[in-house]
Fold this sequence. Notes:
Elements: E1 3-7, E2 10-12, E3 18-25, E4 34-39, E5 46-51, E6 60-61, E7 69-74, E8 79-84, E9 93-98, H1 100-104, E10 112-116
Parallel strand pairs: 2-10
Antiparallel strand pairs: 1-3, 3-8, 4-5, 4-9, 5-6, 7-8, 9-10
Amino acid sequence: QVQFVESGGGLVQPGESLRLSCTVSGITFSFSTMNWYRQAPGKQRELVASMPATTRDPISYIDSVKGRFAISRDNAKNSVYLQMNSLKPEDTAVYYCNTPGFSARNHWGQGTQVTVSS
């Protein structure tokens, strides 16, 4: 059974940092592109960062987080991370990790809430 378990969210002030973690089971993690998505209240879920399985392919970010967020992975731990720096109120959302395939099948974890507020 495929499971995505996100953690690391919380309430922070603007300018602060958070590191999200996601542990995945039930897939061949090292062969999988791993993505971070987010969904803000009243908005559609959006792809925030994508990290391919191989270093030959580029990592990508949405423009609004470039230079502030960094995605990484540890294949030995079946885990993907999202380091978020210089957080802004508009980063407030529930954050999810997923693969392209399982996101297309609408198979999601519970997500982790990030709230940026003064």
